[in-house]
Amino acid sequence: MRERDVLRLLASGARNAEIAEELLISVNTVKFHVSNLLRKVGARNRAQLIATSI
Q1: pTM of the predicted protein model
Q2: Angle, to 10 degrees, between the axis of helix 46-53 and the axis of helix 27-41?
Q3: Which of 15, 22, 39, 43 is the most exposed place for a label (fewest CB within 10 A)?
Q4: What angle do CA 3, 25, 21 make, to 5 degrees?
């Protein structure tokens, strides 16, 4: 569920700090979720992640 929230905010153009503030989590937790999402879909960067997930 959190990964989905992080992905939604990434797709809106939010930065890690903005995502952390919105979801009331740490920036490191955001990085952890982004890393997991990248690995799960085999994306190399955020742009690929967003393009793959749309």
Answers
A1: 0.92
A2: 60
A3: 39
A4: 105
